[in-house]
Fold this protein.
Amino acid sequence: MAQSLSATPLAAATEGVANDVALGRKQAWRILIADDHEAVRRGLRSAIIGMGWQVCGEARDGKEAIEQARALNPDLVILDVSMPVMSGLEAAPQILQSAPRTKVVAFTMHESQQMKDEMAKIGVHGFAIKSAPLAQLLETIRSVLAK
Amino acid sequence: MMKSLRILLADDHDLMRRGLKAMIETHPGWEVCGEAHTGKEAVAKAEQLKPHVAVLDISMPEMDGLEAARQIRKNFPETEVLVLSMHYSDQIIREVVEAGILGYVTKSESDRDLVLAVEALANHKPFFTSHATELMLTNLSAAGGSFRRGSSDVKERLTPREREIIRLISEGNSSKQVASALGISVKTADTHRANIMRKVQVHTVSDLVRYALRNKIIEA
């Protein structure tokens, strides 16, 4: 696999996508967004589409995320940890169980080693911070999908 | 009705800014004429772009949204300001009202209230949600008609510089790092720190962080 020599996370993510295409890997990944804030969902949607990926669905709480994951079988779910009705922490195991092909990236406001450890125990594939630069989030998604 | 409404967006989180922009630009005739990552940049762009409405996140580096809002309202009175925060706080509401800012919405309510708020402000009308209004009225009634100070622990109001220093300390910065971030001497940073701890009546950094969380100077 080509090594990324790009200096910035956005360049790395973009270069990573180009590498995937060059190597014949599937590029139009289908991503489900689960977050209770519309502004966050819209921001993610815009960024994901900008990378040439697809947003196959959106959910506003953990329960909806499980239902959508079962129905849509996305390649990846971006799962906000803190949501009403059912949190991402509660939803993640059910998503992983009912859609075993689907990868999950946990998404939270602040970095917390404890949260990361809990999510890793559940089997979540990646962890991203909402306050980080967008390019970093995109690179996290890309690298999880590329594994 | 204005032909084109020009809106300045200020939030230090890329994702939130992008999402707010998408929400605003689905409204016909509205355009995001500029974006800022810090309060300081927001004030500079308000001067340069003269937007009709400035939407400011309250928690930003290099001058928080409240101080930026005060400066924009003072220097560019034609620009209305909408302040966004993660959670409600008595202190924030008090400061918003006292600064002459007509709009305040929490981010969790922005889904339904952002557009309504911008519409109201575009017509120079105030926009506060029913929850914010209830908090304001409770404050007024409890204080016998005048707006009571947010926390009974604070005998003197914190200055914008002090609020910034609290934020930096809460993020784990040493006095040297605080001094470097603000372009002041370490001794001045230490003096500020001592004054802040005296004002808010705490003795440790942990207590200061708890104070900052309780009063929404930082967000959990």
Chain B has two domains: 5-142, 160-214. Residues 186-200 of chain B form the longest helix (15 residues). Chain B touches chain A at residues 12-20, 22-23, 107-108, 110-111, 114, 219-220 (CB under 8 Å). The radius of gyration of chain B is 18 Å.
